[in-house]
Amino acid sequence: MLFGSWARGELSRESDDDWAVIVESGDPNRPDVRRVLTQAREALGGEGREPGEQDLFGVAFTGEELIDQIGLDEDLNRRLTRRILLLLESVPLVGAESHRRSWELVLHTYLAHGAKSYRPPRFLLNRSEMFDYLRRQLRASPTDRLAEAFLHFDGGVNVDAGIRGLQAYDRFVGLMASEDFRLHLKTLTADTRKASSQWREVSALGDQLQQSLLTLLFGSSLAPLTIQFGIF
Questions:
Q1: Are the C-beta atoms of residues 89 and 127 closer than 8 Å to each other?
Q2: DSSP 161-217
Q3: What is the DSSP letter of 74?
Q4: Exposed (0-12), middle (13-18) or buried (19+): which is 84, by Cβ within 10 Å?
Q5: Residue 59 above 60 pLDDT?
């Protein structure tokens, strides 16, 4: 499966190939899985697009591993990160049914573990009617979820702020697709960046997106929920 810009629909020539092989069950080191890993490494990456070196990507792991020890001391950060990325930012390259089953297994397990309402994340309560809703929301792109929220709360009164935020994000994605632009940013330091018009533009876009999100989270009827469930 593929993560990041592949899953968000924002792929550019400068995007990394963040991928992993998910095995529903069994030994992820068995010969057939190793063959798939070899094929994936030959087809993906190259020209600086290799996955990161944090051992999150470019490897094989099992769906069963992702749901083991949820919320307990042995729930490693790497496992948590893979689990959240599977839910929020993953698409199958092959094996769509296997990906779907693993994805739904993680969501079902989260719902089951949310039975105690005092335990965050409290929005994942053990309610069977939540599964279809969460599946629909989590499978949508992040920008679609954000746009829907601006349209939904308070009858869309803050939709202009949503438009400004999405415009800023779209501009940022376009800029980061430019090799020259990315190379310029890499040359900057804390002392030189303020003199860069490119840096100033990126910084302004970040401020614009942040203000848009603050308007949604704290400037609408969503504010009490943000305080209650988003700030524990």
A1: no
A2: HHHHHHHHHHHHHHHHT-HHHHHHHHH--TTTGGG-HHHHHHHHHHHHHHHHHHHHH
A3: T
A4: middle
A5: yes
Give pLDDT tens digits for 185-220: 999 999 999 999 999 999 999 999 999 999 999 999
Mean pLDDT of 90-110: 90
What is the 3-state secondary structure of 110-138? Answer: HHHHCCCCCCCCCCCCCCCCHHHHHHHHH
Rounded to 10 deg, the angle between the 197-218 and 179-187 helix axes is: 100
Sign of torsion over alpha carbons 34, 38, 40, 46? positive
Domain boundaries, the chain: 2-139, 143-230
| pTM of the predicted model as reported, rounded to 2 decimal places | 0.77
Helices and strands (H and E) in the chain: how many: 11, 4
- Taking only the tens place, the pLDDT of each residue in 22-41 is 998 889 999 999 999 999 88
